[in-house]
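lol forgot to send this yesterday, sorry. struct tokens for the thing we talked abt
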């Protein structure tokens, strides 16, 4: 059983996989093109915010189980399995950009030319069905001068980890999917994962293309579940005394539906759902099927951030010169990642309307500064953010914000108007002291007391 692994690409997936294997006793060599990143990793410093990662990375580095190098792909030769975790971003038309993963495949193949023994290449990056077999395999064969199935093996092993819980998900996945080119490839990876996880974790073995599709289908389904509940939320808002939160809670108790991913709000962001839904739409059209459902998922998601801005306009009228406080910037809690974060379209729209925007996030302010520069103001705390604001929009559901009371809003804001974009506050309690609006919350036969407060 091999204990020597290499991983090319050291983003969320690559680094979490590397650290996961390293702390469980595997010798891991990580490769990147970014020497600054490699240097940081070798000092035990993760290049992004992720709970538990720093502690475990430090441990792996100290025990000399994980080493990261830049531009030294020869290290692959000292290992038996190489994972590809290179990014596969979207092109401007939504289809998948394979440029980087193709370069990685070529780089690995070139190195394998010198290797005498069998080597397994495992694609972990998200790629549309057919990519591993039709695009990556020929590249590796050509650059290595070797034959897939004979001299080297090939698997597609999609990753299901969530940011903010990356290491936890790496160590305790619901399932492992192995797409295999041939039996030997699949067997080699299966043995690695049985050794790593023991016998409790289900391991499914499929064709390469089915494994690729499982990843897209899983993300597209979760994204659709979110757009579905947001659609219901938008209907609920039109009806007095209906609350989407209760609707979702009751729906979720039906085992066939399940409660996960039924949190209504301002939509999904991040580096995966928006990109993967778009890529699956583009792929589907390319192979001759118009994916109406997926297009609707995407349309609902794009419109959702506007709803809180519209609520704000309905309440304040002209937004020109009004001060709007934004609580939360990251695309979800426990990360500083703002890729496709819903805060971005919300802030842009508010600025377009002439509003003055002040923001606070426990960790994502440095990221926000690179996006908005001096166009907005950055607060030093949640309370500081609320000071003298005409309206507050809750955008990311950090625990820190859940602890705020209606009194905090009432005392600090110019007008105590709160729009809960993630449904973290209790409408009954909050409506008593401030003017409270929320996604998916039907109007109480117009809250007159709250109106008086404003
Ligand atoms: C997602 C998947 O959950 C992972 O399984 C997958 O491995 C990953 O994409 C990927 O493809 O790499 P991630 O993007 O890290 O993980 O975060 P999620 O927790 O799925 O949240 C995505 C977005 O959906 C966030 O903006 C979140 O606020 C939103 N969301 C989530 C909702 O609006 N409502 C919900 O009920 C759940």
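and heres what i got for the seq, position by position
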């Amino acid at each position: 059983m091999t204990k020597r692994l290499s991983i090319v690409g050291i983003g969320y997936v690559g680094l979490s996989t590397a650290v996961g294997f390293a702390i469980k006793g595997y010798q891991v060599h990580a490769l990147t093109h970014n020497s600054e990143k490699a240097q940081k990793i070798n000092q035990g410093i993760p290049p992004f915010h992720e709970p538990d990662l720093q502690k475990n990375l430090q441990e792996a580095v100290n025990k000399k189980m994980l080493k990261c190098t830049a531009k030294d792909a020869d290290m692959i030769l000292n290992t038996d399995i190489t994972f590809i975790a290179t990014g596969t971003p979207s092109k401007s038309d939504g289809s998948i950009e394979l440029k980087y993963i193709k370069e990685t495949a070529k780089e690995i193949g070139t190195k394998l030319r010198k290797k005498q023994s069998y080597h397994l290449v495992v694609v972990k990056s998200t790629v549309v069905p057919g990519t591993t077999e039709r695009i990556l395999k020929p590249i590796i064969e050509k650059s290595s001068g070797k034959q897939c199935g004979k001299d080297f093996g090939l698997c597609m092993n999609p990753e299901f980890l969530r940011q903010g819980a990356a290491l936890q998900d790496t160590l305790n996945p619901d399932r492992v999917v192995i797409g295999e080119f041939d039996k030997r490839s699949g067997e080699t990876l299966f043995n690695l994962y049985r050794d790593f996880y023991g016998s409790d974790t289900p391991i499914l073995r499929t064709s390469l293309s089915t494994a690729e599709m499982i990843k897209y289908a899983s993300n597209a389904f979760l994204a659709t579940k979110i757009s579905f509940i947001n659609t219901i939320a938008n209907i609920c808002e039109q009806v007095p005394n209906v609350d989407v939160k209760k609707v979702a809670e009751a729906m979720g108790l039906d085992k066939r539906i399940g409660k996960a991913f039924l949190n209504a709000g301002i939509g999904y962001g991040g580096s995966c759902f928006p990109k993967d839904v778009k890529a699956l739409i583009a792929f589907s059209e390319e192979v001759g099927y118009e994916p109406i459902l997926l297009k609707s998922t995407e349309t609902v998601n794009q419109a959702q951030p506007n709803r809180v801005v519209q609520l704000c306009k309905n309440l304040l009228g002209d937004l020109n010169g009004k001060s709007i406080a934004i609580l939360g910037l990251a695309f979800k809690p426990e990360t500083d990642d703002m890729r496709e974060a819903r805060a971005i379209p919300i802030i842009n729209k508010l600025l377009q309307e002439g509003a003055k925007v002040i923001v606070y996030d426990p960790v994502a302010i440095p990221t926000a500064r690179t996006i908005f520069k001096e166009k907005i103001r950055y607060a030093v705390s949640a309370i500081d953010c609320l000071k003298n604001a005409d309206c507050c929009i809750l955008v990311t559901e950090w625990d820190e914000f859940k602890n705020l009371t209606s009194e905090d809003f009432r005392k600090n804001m110019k007008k105590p108007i709160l729009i809960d974009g993630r449904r973290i506050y209790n409408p009954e309690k909050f409506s008593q002291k401030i003017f409270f609006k929320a996604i998916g919350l039907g109007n109480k036969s117009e809250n007159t007391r709250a109106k008086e407060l404003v």
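Residues 126, 159-163, 219, 222, 226, 261-263, 265, 268-270, 272-273, 331-332 surround uridine-5'-diphosphate-glucuronic acid (CB under 6 Å). anyway ping me if u want another try
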